[in-house]
Amino acid sequence: MVKFEVSRVVTTPFDGQKPGTSGLRKKVKVFVQPHYLENFVQSTFYALSAEKVQGATLVVSGDGRYYSKDAIQIIIKMAAANGVRRVWVGQNGLLSTPAVSAVIRERVGHDGSKATGAFILTASHNPGGPHEDFGIKYNMENGGPAPEAITDKIYENTKTIKEYLIAEGLPDVDIAVIGVSSFMGPEGQFNVEVFDSASDYVTLMKSIFDFQAIQKLLSSPNFTFCYDALHGVAGAYANRIFVEELGAQESSLLNCTPKEDFGGGHPDPNLTYAKELVARMGLGKSSPHDEPPEFGAAADGDADRNMILGKRFFVTPSDSVAIIAANAVESIPYFSSGLKGVARSMPTSAALDVVAKHLNLKFFEVPTGWKFFGNLMDAGLCSVCGEESFGTGSDHIREKDGIWAVLAWLSILAHKNKENIHGGKLVSVEDIVRQHWATYGRHYYTRYDYENVDSGAAKELMANLVQLQSSLAEVNEIVKGVHSDVSNVVHADEFEYKDPVDGSISKHQGVRYLFEDGSRLVFRLSGTGSEGATIRLYIEQYEKDPSKTGRDSQEALAPLVDVALKLSKMEEFTGRSAPTVIT
């Protein structure tokens, strides 16, 4: 058995290693600097209590983006040196973020061991490659992202770190081959187990959904299906679930080979970046050669996000979570005894609120960041939750889950079509959404992203919006000056959240302007980019009148968009005459 020694390597701090809501994300060129990754990993070990490290079992895997394989070997050696007993790695270093959460929560090792946490190597929906983004985040024993108390400690440690521990003489582990490699260190045996990336996750999905019902839907001659992994890690699961388990045609899978650079694309499942799927579904600028499929979906780099499409029809993420919540009990066996509650992030439209009120469910509005949902789920208060940024999930794990959302929609379609699978017109995605609007009203909704804005200019813009809130009379004067028929602003604030579970308070979570008719404008700085700032502007208008729920979204929202741009002085502060992405 190969033996290793522990080396203490002298280092100095790097500026800016502050983890955001989804860990630390930077360009690859930053991460490959000597000691950069090591400093962050050691700072994380220092932030954890001794029993989470000494003799513990950790998961180390990710979305397979460029630099992941090198990073996995470094983290294995550092885990060994810090007294970790076992490291579990998905084959080829691949595990989707939801699968990592499932592995932490569900997997039991051959010796009865359970994981206490994970290093996930992903920059989510950001591009990959030598000149693109890399990221790392730590998840806790509940399978969810580290809470602020831990990420704050990690950041403080990165500012004072003087040395890190690494195993000398520990060879690289072959992560392409399933099996266990054992080594001997000063504190005893250290094992690295490479395991099948998909098995635990597939087992979990089969325990939640009626795969037989979905299989019947997919085998119907009237139903066609398309899934685009955008060359992200979802490809490691798509064939197993959709083809092997559910009987879909292999030709229904697009871009399902995981690649280090995501095939040169941007692995963000939206109408801008999922071009091939959007065209195939009949939503592109030119008409497709063939009749579009009935149902289409896409995933991001680490497979925690999803986009749902019908034939020539886009489902907004805000509508998607509301529709899943409204149909979950009758369509998904896991929820057959009822929902404990529902929750959404603050910028997400209020479509879910209306469903919660209608069905008399507990409802929570939380800051952006999945960890806030995790607290509610751990306390048994929430079953289904979602974010407008294409994240949907439930309490089966503690991360958003893109494939889960696709299976939820397929379950709803299977339930609605159980009488007419073999003949007659299928109830379509569009039918389900329009029926939902007829029942609950429609929340017209759009998001404008201004990416890589100068950080100073972005902060000035936000400060100006906060200052404006002190005089609603002045705000309404600006509003009426732009469009006299837009409703008055009745409340404006910076969103603040007191967690009902642990009492923690999160401040400065976005600037809100709430209108008399239920419309909203929300402005947020996002922490998901690797350089510069991203300003996100969310625009929402509620329409209860069934005769007015069929309008084009951008047309219905145009007056509010004009108001938002004028109120924020967007072009004046940023120099941008148009957003980078409109969703």
Shape: globular
Q: Quick check: average pLDDT? A: 94
| Largest beta-sheet details | 8 strands, mixed
How far apart the termini lie comes to 55 Å
Output the strand order for the largest sheet: 1-9-10-5-4-6-7-3
Number of helices: 18
Low-confidence stretches: none
Write down the Rg.
24 Å
Which percent band covers the strand fraction?
15-25%
According to DSSP, the number of beta strands is 27
The helicity comes to 25-40%
Query: Structural class from helices and strands?
Result: alpha/beta
Characterization of the model:
The protein is α/β, with parallel strands linked by helices. 33% of the residues lie in helices and 24% in strands. The protein has 18 helices and 27 strands. An eight-stranded mixed beta sheet has the order 1-9-10-5-4-6-7-3, with helices on both faces. Helix 7 packs across helix 13 (402-416), helix 10 (317-331) runs parallel beside helix 11 and helix 16 (472-482) crosses helix 17 (553-568). The chain is globular. The chain starts with a strand and ends with a strand. The model has no long low-confidence stretch (mean pLDDT 94).
Which helices and strands, and how do they pair?
Layout lengths: L1 E2 L1 E6 L13 E4 H4 L4 H12 L9 E6 L5 H14 L4 E5 L6 H10 L10 E5 L11 E7 L8 H13 L2 E6 L10 E7 L2 E8 L3 H10 L2 H9 L5 E4 L6 H11 L7 E2 L20 H6 L14 E5 L6 E5 L2 E3 L1 H15 L10 E4 L5 H9 L3 E4 L3 H9 L5 E4 L3 E4 L7 H15 L12 H12 L1 E12 L1 H14 L3 H11 L6 E6 L2 E2 L6 E2 L4 E5 L4 E7 L6 E11 L9 H16 L1 H5 L6 E2 L1
Parallel strand pairs: 1-9, 4-5, 4-6, 5-10, 11-12, 11-13, 16-17, 16-18
Antiparallel strand pairs: 2-8, 3-7, 6-7, 9-10, 13-14, 14-15, 18-19, 20-26, 20-27, 21-24, 22-23, 24-25, 25-26
